[in-house]
Structures are given as C-alpha cells and as structure tokens.
Design a protein that fits this description.
Elements lengths: L1 H28 L13 H11 L2 H16 L6 H4 L3 H4 L6
Length: 94
C-alpha cells in the first residue's frame, strides 16, 4: 500500500508540474510574464518564488495554496518551503 501511495504522490506532482507549464506558458506567450515555464517546477514553487520577489498576485495566491495544504495536514508556509532548489541555488528548507 505504501508503494501505491508513493506512486500516486509522484503522479500528482507530475500533474502539478504540467499544469504549471500550461498556465505559465500561456502567460509567457501572451507577454504577461517574462518567466519561461520550467517542467521541473510545481505551481507552489513558482508562486513561492514570485512571492519572494514581492509579486502582488503571488501575495494573494500563496495564502490560498498554503491553506489548502494546511487542510491536508501540512504546516503553514507550503509555497515558501517548496521553492525549487534549482532556482535558488540552495536546498528547500524542511
């Protein structure tokens, strides 16, 4: 059962990454953002990085995403914790 849960979690992450590429890719094509999407980044990571830069929309979006994960049993601050290390040069904080 643990292995099934592990695989299911990875499938959900891959769907999250695909959604991020589709959404950010559309914004990139339409010149709404200068950030080209990365297939290795989740929506939470993208929003967390934007929040760190002070993007107004990320300051509205991150609390909603964080609340969703709190309701799923995670600690507050999900977006900040999940900023991909490849984009910051350091490992995400636990």
């Amino acid at each position: 059962m643990r292995r099934l849960r592990d695989v299911a979690q990875q499938l959900l992450v891959s769907v999250d990454q695909l959604a991020q590429v589709v959404i950010v890719g559309l914004f990139y094509i339409l010149h709404i953002t200068d950030a080209c999407p990365s297939a290795d980044e989740t929506i939470s990571s993208y929003v967390g990085r934007a929040q760190m830069r002070g993007a107004w929309w990320a300051n509205l979006t991150a609390p909603v995403i964080d609340l969703l994960f709190v309701l799923l049993g995670e600690k507050p601050g999900h977006c900040q914790r999940n900023v991909e290390s490849a984009f910051l040069g350091s490992a995400p904080k636990p």
